[in-house]
Design goal:
two-stranded antiparallel sheet, 2 strands, 68% helix
């Protein structure tokens, strides 16, 4: 991993034993710890990450709370992450942050926590909880360390998380539609339109709102949703399908093009698509 190499290029220090005459000095605790540390590094190079993690932890336990101890702790966490022991890695990283708050590698520790949660995301059909946790961890990092090299990567991953959350909401909405639970479906679709309006799923969400509103007799709301869909995506399949839902003599609402740049959907959607829960 490139980031790991950048972070730890300087950690390879070499120590030698000294002699006085023919008497070999007993290695100090620090020397012993550094020998274990080098053994852990070698195991990591050989991809024996579990053994490397235990040796890094052993080295840390022999060292005082110095930069070397902090590096040992962080390397142990990385090895656990490398073999997908995400929960153990996160616990180790949280401990690292608590014990070594002055370490220069604190941003990397938070980054690795966020990545550990991100890599547990499977797809939108699975439990939504990992998505929400991952989103929070990524957003927390971007607030704490917005100008780090890791922020660029996490901003990209944040967009992917948002898309998966929108896909999950749409999947749930389809389930409610299939079972004719209209209010529950509307609530899910409104989440997509309100919170995930920059994703590709907003078009279908608006169309489904047109269908539901029209079906339950709320024609003004159906027309408003269709107007937003038509204005923003008037060449899409979803707009064509929405138009077919409405009465033949319905004329789409025309909105001045200049208004789009002002965030039309964001400003008006709550007014146009609001419906009280029953």
């Amino acid at each position: 991993m490139r980031i790991l190499l950048v972070l730890f290029t300087s950690v390879f220090l070499f120590f030698s034993c000294s002699k006085k005459g023919d008497v070999i000095e007993t290695p100090s605790t620090k020397d012993q710890a550094m020998n274990i540390y080098k053994e852990a590094l070698q195991s990591m190079k050989e991809a024996d990450y579990f053994y490397a993690s235990t040796k890094f932890s052993e080295a840390e336990s022999l060292l005082p709370q110095t930069d070397w101890a902090a590096k040992s702790s962080l390397m142990s966490s990385y090895c656990l992450y490398a073999i997908n022991f995400y929960d153990d890695a996160v616990l180790n990283l949280e401990r690292f942050i608590k014990i070594y708050p002055a370490s220069s590698h604190i941003p990397y520790a938070y980054y690795l926590i966020a990545i550990s949660y991100y890599e547990q995301i499977l797809d939108e059909r699975k439990d939504i909880q990992p998505l929400n946790i991952s989103k929070k961890k990524v957003e927390d990092f971007l607030v704490k360390f917005p100008n780090t090299e890791y922020a660029i990567d996490l901003k990209f991953k944040h967009d992917l998380i948002i898309n998966q959350l929108a896909a999950k909401e749409l999947s749930i909405a389809r389930y409610y539609i299939k079972n004719e639970k209209w209010i529950a479906a509307i609530n899910r679709l409104r989440i997509i339109v309100d919170d995930y309006d920059k994703t590709i799923f907003v078009e279908e969400a608006l169309h489904r709102l047109v269908e539901i509103y029209y079906k339950i007799g709320l024609e003004d709301e159906a027309k408003a949703a269709a107007a937003l869909l038509g204005y923003n995506y008037n060449s899409s399949e979803w707009y064509a399908r929405s138009y077919k839902v409405l009465n033949k003599d319905y004329e789409p609402i025309i909105v001045e093009k200049a208004d789009k740049e002002g965030g039309l959907i964001k400003r008006t959607i709550k007014k146009l698509l609001f419906i009280d829960d029953e």
